[in-house]
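Key result, reporting period 2: structure in, sequence out.
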């Protein structure tokens, strides 16, 4: 199993940047495919993007392409989300999630970190 803890959220003005981190413990991060999701009340949960276990294949939601970048440091057991040109529509709670490559659903979730853009 793996445990996930997000950090780096906060309040930022439109056009600004934030970098979210997801620290992991337990099993080595290199075992897992990872993703960032976001959610707010009244809106469906959205997969922001995902990154495979090797870190060489990423996918992004259309809403964040060109603005957000997912990266990982398997040696440090950490996942990152660099968010640039933030807009008010990006205001959500952000979660990191992990699954083993052969699983279809994300099994492990962090507690979330709030991002507010004004």
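The corresponding designed sequence is given below.
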């Amino acid at each position: 199993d793996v445990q996930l803890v997000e950090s780096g959220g906060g309040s930022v003005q439109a056009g600004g940047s934030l970098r979210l981190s997801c620290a992991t413990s337990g099993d080595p991060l290199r075992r897992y495919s990872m993703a960032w999701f976001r959610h707010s009340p009244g809106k469906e949960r959205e997969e922001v993007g995902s990154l495979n276990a090797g870190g060489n294949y990423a996918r992004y939601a259309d809403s964040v392409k060109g603005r957000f970048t997912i990266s990982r440091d398997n040696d440090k057991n950490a996942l990152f989300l660099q968010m640039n040109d933030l807009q008010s529509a990006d205001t959500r709670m952000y979660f990191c999630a992990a699954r083993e490559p052969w699983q279809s659903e994300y099994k492990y979730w962090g507690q979330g970190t709030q991002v507010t853009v004004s």
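The mean pLDDT is 96. DSSP finds no helices and eleven strands in the chain. This case is discussed further under Risks and Mitigation.
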